[in-house]
Design goal:
Length: 582
């Protein structure tokens, strides 16, 4: 027994213990998802499908179709399939729902591990503690369900935090961190276009600072430039990450996606602009509640355009206050950079400088980001939350570092930091549901689960088209339906160009299909063509609710309760039918 205890003490290093604490909310989030009966909703199903397609005849060379197509006037995909590649082993081995949940938790766990590793390179134990606090704070802000959500704007938040950590480590001259920075940057930009400008600016600044730090360092023994090996590894990582999008550009059908994206970025369209952009950035970075949990769902509401074509949010602070608050925070951060440099603390100074560059990159992104026809949505700028979390924890670390030696904060800062981390772990453990993206429609999960079970048994004898003409924007059903049928090898094709780019060229309709598969919602699910074959149907009620409806209809009692149950059934009802085409 004593030998076992000794082995445990040796293995349970402070770094391992800190990493275990940081990963605990992710493990608990997986359990919460399992207990809640997590199934894919909307785009979740499409992401699972393309992950299952990896290394098959329908291998995805690009990322998902992007809603930026609506502004650009042409169908575009996110640049690359790295997210699908990372999820593929989990989806293939564990199945759709379990594989997606565990796969996202694994990606987020790896991102936390990278952030802590880069923090240790940057500033030793202090850097580890800072990154752990930032990861746990961001996890709490997102809530347990978002930690296993496969939608790109959510699954990329912890990797973006790891990217900022790798950028800071690169900035102080850790050349091996450049490869991590390049790999994470590739994942972010390929998976969601909204990260492009802020990642590019932060990456460029980090490389410039890295070059300066390496140039000032002593040459390595033997005359080898200290940057050569790191540059070779970073170049290899970049080549490996971008070979698929480049292949599609050169050899894919029609105009390549990279050239489409370049053309779309140069086209004129309405952008968020400086005034609205300052208010958006300040609302998360400089004005309470900052990056904390209440802000994740409520600070940037989905806001359609007004009659004048602009976006107006009366609840936000006015532009003048936003500008002053943001300028004050940036001024304090830069002042801390100067004080830290005078104190000889290059690590924390460079970290703060990288985060300041990220804030400036966020402002620059607002100047060029298109304001879509649907208005403003928080998923366009989710990167603000990791930036804000890291900024405020870096400022807290700077305050502790610059405090006079006699102050209690200076004497007990390690204990205070560890206590804060334990508190953050504890508050992360309860389940928390956040509305955002496909998860907003979680009330449909029992219906979708029933539909999946029914569609697993479907065998189509002949090729059929999937009808997209009657689908409302961002509806929750088509993604899971397509995942189940196509993952089971059913001969399903699509005509709509956006869906072709979503599902792959191999699923383009040939024109010889004689059948059509259609998803019918609400009242349409009650008015099914007699010629149609019902592949799946669910009214969203459980057995007790159906029995209650029958009882109330027979007795004529409690008409208000009956009306409420009927309205609930109409709102949840869905059918998938197969019918002759034409």
């Amino acid at each position: 027994m004593s030998a076992l205890i000794t082995w445990g003490r040796r293995r349970c290093t402070p770094t391992a213990a800190l990493l275990a604490l940081t990963l605990a909310p992710l493990l608990v989030a997986v359990l919460h998802a399992w207990r809640a009966g997590w199934v894919p909703i909307g785009d979740h199903g499409l992401i699972e499908l393309r992950a299952a397609d990896v290394l098959t005849a329908d291998h995805p060379w690009l990322g998902t179709w992007t809603s930026a197509s609506l502004s650009a006037g042409t169908d575009l995909n996110n640049p690359g399939p790295l997210l699908f590649d990372l999820l593929a082993p989990f989806v293939k081995l564990l199945g759709g729902s379990a594989g997606a949940v565990i796969g996202v938790a694994a990606i987020n766990g790896a991102a936390c591990a990278v952030a802590l590793f880069q923090g240790r390179l940057l500033a030793g134990r202090r850097g580890e503690l800072l990154m752990a606090a930032a990861c746990l704070s961001l996890s709490w802000s997102m809530g347990s369900e978002m930690l296993v959500d496969t939608w790109q704007p959510h699954v990329l938040l912890l990797p973006f935090l790891a990217f900022l950590a790798a950028s800071a480590a690169s900035a102080v001259g850790h050349v091996r961190s450049v490869a991590w920075m390049v790999g994470l940057a590739s994942l972010l930009v390929q998976s969601h276009l909204s990260f492009t400008y802020v990642v590019a600016l932060v990456g460029a600044a980090a490389l410039l600072l890295c070059w300066r730090s390496v140039r000032l360092a002593r040459p390595a023994p033997g005359g080898q430039p200290p940057w050569r090996r790191g540059a070779v590894v970073a170049g290899a990582v970049a080549l490996l990450c971008w070979v698929q999008p480049v292949y599609e550009q050169l050899f894919g059908p029609g105009e390549g996606n990279l050239s489409r994206l370049a053309g779309a970025s140069s086209s004129s369209s309405d952008t968020i602009g400086a005034g609205l952009g300052v208010r958006l950035v300040a609302h998360i970075v400089a004005i309470p509640p900052w990056f904390l949990r209440p802000s994740f769902q409520d600070s940037i509401p989905i806001t359609p355009r007004s009659e004048d074509g602009l976006v107006h949010v009366a609840a936000w602070p006015p532009l003048a206050l936003s500008f002053v608050a943001l300028a004050a925070v940036l001024a304090v951060a830069l002042w801390c950079v100067l004080l830290l440099r005078r104190a000889g603390d290059r690590a924390l100074a460079h970290l703060l400088l990288v985060v300041v560059v990220a804030v400036i990159g966020a402002l620059g992104t607002m100047l060029v980001m298109p304001l879509g026809p649907l208005g403003l949505a928080p998923h366009q700028m989710r990167w603000l939350w990791p930036i804000s979390a890291l900024l405020w924890w870096s400022l807290a670390a700077a305050a502790a570092r610059l405090a006079p030696a006699g102050w209690w904060v200076s004497r007990f800062r390690a204990r205070v930091a560890m206590g804060a981390i334990v508190v953050l772990v504890i508050i992360n453990l309860p389940a928390h549901l956040t509305d955002g993206g496909p998860a907003t429609f979680r009330q449909y999960r029992p219906v979708i689960s029933s539909m999946i079970d029914q569609l697993e048994q479907v065998q189509l004898a002949e090729p059929a088209q999937f009808d997209t003409a009657n689908l409302r924007f961002a509806e929750p059903f088509s993604g899971p339906v397509l995942f189940v049928l196509l993952d089971n090898g059913q001969p399903l094709t699509v005509v709509d160009e956006g869906f072709v780019r979503q599902l792959g060229e191999g699923r383009r309709a040939s024109g010889e299909e004689r059948w059509i598969v259609r998803v019918l919602e609400r009242d349409a699910a009650l008015d099914i063509d007699p010629a149609a074959q019902v592949l799946a149907f669910d009214d969203g009620l459980d057995a007790a609710q159906r029995e209650e409806i029958d009882t109330l209809q027979a007795s004529g009692e409690d008409p208000q309760r009956l009306e409420a149950l009927v309205a609930l059934r109409r709102s949840l009802m869905v059918a998938v039918v197969l019918m002759p085409l034409g």
